[in-house]
Design a protein that fits this description.
By secondary structure, the chain is an all-beta fold. Strands 2, 4, 5, 6, 9, 10 and 11 form a seven-stranded mixed β-sheet that branches. A four-stranded antiparallel β-sheet has the order 1-3-8-7, with no helix packed on it. Strand 7 and strand 8 form a beta hairpin. It is globular, with a radius of gyration of 14 Å. It starts with a strand and ends with a strand.
Length: 129
């Protein structure tokens, strides 16, 4: 059964850091682009980052560029999102997603929800003092 499981969400103070993990079950992570999205209360789900199959391609939204770093460890079937200099506006439920059709993501395609077929359940990040 195909499954993505996110972990690492927590309550953190502004300026702090967290590392989120997205672990794949039931399929070989190596072959797919993986995206990270987030959804704050009352807002639509937004794409924030995406990584290519061999880490040579990565994308970031303007809202997180320079603060977040995406990486992957295919041997551990896991993609990470290192989040630094967190702000209250980063508070959201964070999801990872995969396109099991195997389509690479180029240009701005990585940003759109419809580009992904399977999603995790999310992990909550709260940034507050």
């Amino acid at each position: 059964q195909v499954q993505l499981v996110e972990s690492g969400g927590d309550l953190v103070q502004p300026g702090g850091s967290l590392r989120l993990s997205c672990t794949a079950y039931g399929f070989t992570l190596d072959n797919y682009f993986i995206g990270w999205f987030r959804q704050a209360p009352g807002r639509s789900r937004e794409g924030i980052s995406c990584i290519g199959t061999s880490s040579d391609i990565s994308y970031y939204s303007d809202s997180v560029k320079g603060r977040f770093i995406i990486s992957r460890d295919n041997a551990k079937h896991t993609v990470y999102l290192q989040m630094n200099r967190l702000k209250p506006e980063d508070t959201a439920l964070y999801y990872c997603a995969v396109d099991l059709r195997g389509r690479p993501k180029f240009g701005s395609s990585w940003y759109f929800r419809y580009e992904y077929t399977d999603w995790g359940q999310g992990t909550q990040v709260t940034v507050s003092s």
